[in-house]
Amino acid sequence: MTLQIVLAISAVLFALGLAAALSRSNAIMILIGIELMLGAANLNFIAFWRFSDNPSDLAGIMFAIFAIAVAAAEAAVGLAIIILVHRKIKSVEADDASNLKG
């Protein structure tokens, strides 16, 4: 595989994630779209590390591991918020959350 092919795959993944995050009203589907975008960014980190002049340097791997940790924390906090909103208004639709204004 070449760098261009990997970047094209990453761009398609990012576009799919962006489309899913912007077109859905279900909060869980929005989180899945965001996770797809983060996965595409991780793929870019790994691709640029692999095709760099010095692949023995582990900077790309460290960036990817950090991004995976951030994605896991984001998913945990996002799901906790969705559960709390569902308990309050009995729906996970993003449009229904506007009723929570104080």
Task: Determine the mean pLDDT.
Answer: 87
C-alpha geometry: elongated
How much helicity do the residues have? over 70%
Oligomer: single chain
Output the CATH class name: Mainly Alpha
Largest sheet: none
Alpha-carbon distance between the two ends:
53 Å
Number of helices: 3
Radius of gyration: 17 Å
Counted beta strands: 0
Q: Element order, helices and strands?
A: HHH
Q: What number of structural domains do the residues give?
A: 1
Description:
The chain has 102 residues and is mainly α. The relative contact order is 0.14. The protein has helices at 3-23, 27-50, 59-89. The protein has 3 helices and no strands. It has one domain (3-100): Helix Hairpins (Orthogonal Bundle), CATH 1.10.287.3510.
List the helices and strands and how they pair.
Elements: H1 3-23, H2 27-50, H3 59-89
Helix pairs in contact: 1-2, 2-3
The gist of it:
The protein has 102 residues and is mainly alpha-helical. The chain has helices at residues 3-23, 27-50, 59-89.
